[in-house]
């Protein structure tokens, strides 16, 4: 909740600056840039990039790698031949905030020379030369442009995070680099130029006018410079993977950080974090606080509790401002964490592990680390992909600690008043038991999406693909099996026509397939809404102190058929409200009224806005694919049959004790209390999500008839005796 204090704060932003302020801000930024450790080695770094086609740059977080290196390369002519510099980030937030920062450093509006692109949002233009994007997005671009020909340099940033997309991208870029250097000598790599990709490339070239066609061909013959950037000191794994590529280290500036542990294990992390935050606020010297939490819900409840406790303090001790940062937060709000705190105020930043290495927030002196993180895990035996809260690795704990490093040098002031402090909310003996580093994501998540994309890129033999670290064979085989069941690959493991269509959609394969099936059922209009709503986090807002009111609000949308229809009702009601408002008000006012409507109805307006954006993007996608967007109007039976036909991989049957048995894996689950079917407990359900806390719960559940599964997914279901 933005407090009064936070509002005061935003008045200090550069949006309301006078010309004089602007000049001084520009000078200040210039000064900050010069002060960064990386500035001292600018020329050397540029030389290294010039001399090495693949270079690994290792540097401590905050040294200036992400914001500065692309600017250096641009300045020193790496875009001269018309190519652009692409920088991938594992996280959307990093791509957005860094692009904004760099545009500001360059003194230009975002979206021109400097821009960013993430799934469902493209803020670039024909002029863009420095493009920040997510690693997943660059992978998608490769589907349309297998040579990634518009890039002269690609920087894979935060490679140490080893997200699944980064890992796949590394393998792909290795191929692209080889193919591009071969094509310089007139040899086009035919392995890579398979019919599908070749076709996509031709299409693209055909559509260009002559001038662009020429530059496209020129670009195709340019070698690709590859830079792998990592905050982990161990560059060996990347260097070996790229045939002994050179690695350079950028020295950071480490300040001492004192570490504190608890005396006994903490049972309530939120409470422990709150106590620590207030202890720092009331007893410690100046400096901002960074608290690592596991997700949006936890962040929002800690923020609320901080404000509650602040109200109990005497007026003079209330000078504390809270700033949340997590991936689904709107980007204007994300940027607020970077603003310096007004004189006398202390900032408390409540962050997910986004703030571990991807974004560096200046001014942090105190770090509160409960030692937990939300991570994807995958059980290949059960075929279950889920998000669970796990303990961090030692490497993560060290990164978190090092965030207490940058009190003054980034904010332009020299020296600092004393060491940073890191409060680990666990015992020292517990730290010793943590694993050294985090397992790469490719080892712990469902691979269907990646396998589908690799196949669409013409890489058929996924098991033998040159991964930096091979995924488990069972996981690959399982994903091939589910892709086969979805009709995306044929019996001999080749991509089918449906699979090719599915790969074109920026969605999970199951959702892509749902859209294709819905177009056949004549309910694509409804399914587009369901998929958009399923793609965002928590649409419903149920604060603990208003549980009763929020439950009542939900009742007006609830459908006895299940959560999918309930989500559809919410979307339709919101849309109707918005359209009516737009007829009499400006768009801006209609948006504002919609936010109020959301608040009154206990709907999370951020999530709804996100769902509306996703919806318009996927409507465009399906139209481009030539799918017919027809509506089934109020035929909910038809829609539920379509849900059964789409989500048959996740069906479950009620057991005598009221629990459910997932038909394919045999896993025993419960319907999540947030589901509209929690009490109704129908005989047979399909669901989209499985969450593990103390029980295994399924969320986003709809009531179906078992016989529909037999009829619509006969390859898996038979009539039961
Ligand atoms: P690295 O990639 O090496 O971790 P960055 O290039 O991200 O470092 O950051 C360099 C410096 O720029 C950091 O010290 C950080 O404080 C500052 N910085 C980065 N983004 C912003 C921003 N949006 N606003 C203000 N300062 C920023
Ligand atoms: Mg960085």
UniProtKB/TrEMBL annotation:
What keywords tag this UniProt record?
Answer: ATP-binding, Helicase, Hydrolase, Nucleotide-binding
Which GO terms fall under molecular function for this chain's record? ATP binding; double-stranded RNA binding; helicase activity; hydrolase activity; RNA helicase activity
Q: Which Gene3D superfamilies match?
A: 1.20.120.1080, P-loop containing nucleotide triphosphate hydrolases
Helicase ATP-binding domain: from which residue to which, for each copy?
46-251
InterPro entries membership: DEAD-box_helicase_OB_fold, DEAD/DEAH_box_helicase_dom, DNA/RNA_helicase_DEAH_CS, HA2_WH, Helicase-assoc_dom, Helicase_ATP-bd, Helicase_C-like, P-loop_NTPase
Bias (Polar residues) occurs at 1-19
**SUPFAM superfamilies (UniProt xref):** P-loop containing nucleoside triphosphate hydrolases (SSF52540)
Q: Name one GO biological process term.
A: positive regulation of transcription by RNA polymerase I
**Know the name of this protein?**
RNA helicase
């Amino acid at each position: 909740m933005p407090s009064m204090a936070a509002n005061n704060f935003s008045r200090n932003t550069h949006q309301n600056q006078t010309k004089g302020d602007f000049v001084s801000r520009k000078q200040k930024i210039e000064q900050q840039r010069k002060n960064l450790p990386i500035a001292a080695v600018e020329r050397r770094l540029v030389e290294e990039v010039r001399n090495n086609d693949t270079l690994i740059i290792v540097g401590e977080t905050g040294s200036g790698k992400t914001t500065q290196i692309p600017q250096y390369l641009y300045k020193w002519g790496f875009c001269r031949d018309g190519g652009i510099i692409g920088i991938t980030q594992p996280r959307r937030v990093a791509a957005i905030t860094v692009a904004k920062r760099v545009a500001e450093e360059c003194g230009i509006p975002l979206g021109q020379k400097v821009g960013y692109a993430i799934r469902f949002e493209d803020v670039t233009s024909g002029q863009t030369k420095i493009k920040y994007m997510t690693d997943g997005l660059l992978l998608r671009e490769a589907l349309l442009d297998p040579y990634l020909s518009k890039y002269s340099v690609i920087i894979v940033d935060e490679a140490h995070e080893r997200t699944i997309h980064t890992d796949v991208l590394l393998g792909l870029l290795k191929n692209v680099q080889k193919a591009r250097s071969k094509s310089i000598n007139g040899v086009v790599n035919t392995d890579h130029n398979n019919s599908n990709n070749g076709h996509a490339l031709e299409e693209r070239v055909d559509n260009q006018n002559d001038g662009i066609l020429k530059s496209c061909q020129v670009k195709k013959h340019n070698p690709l410079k590859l830079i792998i950037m990592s905050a982990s000191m161990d560059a060996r794994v990347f260097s070996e993977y790229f045939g002994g590529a050179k690695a350079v280290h950028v020295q950071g500036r480490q300040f001492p950080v004192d570490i504190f542990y608890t005396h006994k294990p903490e049972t309530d992390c939120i409470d422990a974090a709150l106590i620590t935050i207030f202890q720092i606020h009331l007893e410690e010297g100046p400096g901002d606080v960074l608290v690592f939490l596991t997700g949006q819900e936890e962040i929002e409840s800690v923020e609320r509790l901080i404000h509650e406790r602040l109200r109990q303090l005497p007026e003079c001790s209330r000078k504390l401002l809270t700033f949340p940062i997590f991936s689904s937060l709107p980007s204007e709000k994300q940027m607020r964490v970077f603003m310096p705190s007004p004189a006398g105020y202390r900032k408390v930043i409540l962050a997910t592990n986004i703030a571990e290495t991807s974004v560096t927030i200046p001014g942090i002196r105190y770090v509160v680390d409960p030692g937990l993180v939300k991570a994807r895990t995958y059980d290949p035996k059960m075929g279950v992909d889920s998000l669970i809260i796990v303990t961090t690795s030692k490497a993560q704990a060290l990164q978190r600690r090092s965030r207490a490093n940058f009190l003054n040098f980034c904010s332009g002031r020299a020296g600092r008043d004393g060491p940073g402090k890191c409060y680990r909310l666990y015992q020292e003996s517990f730290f010793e038991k943590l694993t050294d580093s985090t397992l790469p994501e490719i080892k712990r998540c469902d691979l269907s999406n990646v396998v589908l994309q690799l196949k669409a890129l013409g890489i058929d033999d996924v098991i033998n693909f040159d991964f930096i670290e091979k995924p488990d064979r069972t996981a690959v085989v399982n994903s091939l099996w589910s892709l086969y069941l979805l009709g995306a690959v044929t019996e001999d493991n080749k991509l089918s026509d449906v699979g090719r269509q599915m790969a074109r959609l920026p969605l999970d394969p199951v959702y892509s397939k749902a859209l294709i099936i819905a177009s056949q059922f004549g309910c694509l209009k409804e399914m587009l809404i369901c998929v958009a709503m399923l793609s965002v986090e928590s649409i419903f807002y149920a604060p603990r102190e208003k549980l009763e009111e929020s439950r009542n609000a939900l009742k007006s949308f609830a459908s006895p058929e299940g959560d999918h229809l309930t989500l559809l009702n919410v979307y339709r009601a919101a849309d109707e409200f918005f359209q009516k408002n737009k007829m009499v008000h400006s768009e801006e006012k209609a948006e504002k009224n919609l936010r109020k409507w959301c608040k009154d109805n206990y709907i999370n307006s951020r999530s709804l806005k996100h769902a509306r954006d996703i919806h318009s993007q996927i409507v465009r996608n399906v139209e481009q694919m030539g799918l017919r967007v027809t509506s089934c109007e109020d035929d909910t039976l038809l829609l539920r049959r379509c849900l059964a036909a789409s989500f048959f991989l996740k069906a479950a049957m009620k057991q005598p004790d009221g629990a459910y048995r997932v038909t394919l894996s045999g896993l025993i689950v419960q319907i999540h209390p947030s589901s509209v079917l929690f009490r109704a407990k129908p005989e047979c359900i399909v669901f989209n999500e499985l969450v593990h806390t103390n029980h295994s719960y399924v969320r986003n559940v709809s009531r179906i008839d078992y016989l529909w599964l037999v009829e619509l997914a006969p390859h898996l279901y038979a009539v039961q005796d």
